[in-house]
Design brief:
This protein is α/β, with parallel strands linked by helices and 349 residues long. The protein has helices at 3-11, 27-37, 41-44, 102-107, 121-128, 141-149, 151-160, 162-186, 210-230, 247-253, 270-277, 292-295, 298-312, 333-346, and strands spanning 50-52, 56-57, 69-71, 77-82, 87-93, 116-117, 133-139, 193-196, 234-238, 257-259, 282-287, 319-323. Strand 8, helix 9 (210-230) and strand 9 (234-238) form a beta-alpha-beta unit. The protein is globular, with a radius of gyration of 20 Å. The two termini are 15 Å apart.
Length: 349
Amino acid sequence: MNARERMLAAINHQPVDRVPTDIWATGEVVEKLVASLGADWAAALHIDGMGGTGARYIGPALPAVAEGEGSDMWGIRTRRQAYGTGVYYEQCAWPLAEATTIDDLERYPWPQAEWFDYSEMRAGAARARETQAVQCGYMAPFYYHNLLRGLEQSLIDPLDDPDFTRHLLGRLADAFYGYHRRMFEACDGLIDVAQVTDDYGSQTGPLISLAVFREFYRPHLTRFIDLCKEFGIKVFHHDDGAIRTFIPDLIAMGIDILNPIQHVCPGMELDGLKRDFGAALCFHGGIDNQRVLPFGTPEEVRAEVRLNIDTLAADGTGYILAPCHALQPVTPVENIVAMYDEALVYGGR
């Protein structure tokens, strides 16, 4: 099998020659891998990964920012923050933080589908699918509610002003939907996977109740998932933390792939997830990125890989091995090598 065949077989619960692999990593980690393994580090580690395609932004000029800051089409601003071992661009401005009325929301310049050039997407997708599964799109209403309003205020909104919240989420969802429909139309038949995703979980439990999710967010996710299904696209859902109570709803809505599988969180135990949801879901991730990968020994990493394969791929399929979030700069290269070497050898037994 090549990478594309292996990845799609796992997603579709078909037999694989070995467990497929993927990677998320910070720029600093990539630099270390290049220095250690060379420019073809991903091939050296036998990482299957996914290819991608996207539309080119041609919309209004982005807001001017100070040196070390960034901005995007939503008006979300970030500032470079160094943490000693690595650098992140942390959010420093929330464009709708001060909005209080629906009129305020209507004055906001919501992104438009016309702000993008879709003309080169199809050729890019065709090139990518020669060797890899093709991923395109990212729709995340709860997460972007957080980014536009600030996390605390976005958690208060549904309880404090339901009508305001419904209007905000409706406009947000329309912006996502129009842009993604145009991308999917441009690449009809060439996209394998799209992200309909969010972040409802903390380390110990959900950030919002299931009732709030069902009333305010589920209708928009359902609309996005239905759009993907219209084009024959599998749905990848990323959701950090302890989100087990949401999984039955997510399955009923139609997600196909669940990431990142933080099995150290309550309710996210590997055997229970595979037993209860393995027939419906392909699991993506799973390798502990909070303790084992950054601070464990190579042999502990190998044991973690075997545990995930034995459990999440107990039936020989339905699992894509990857770290349970982006590899951080404190992660030793030898642990990364151990993860993918064990996946190659043990995952193909």
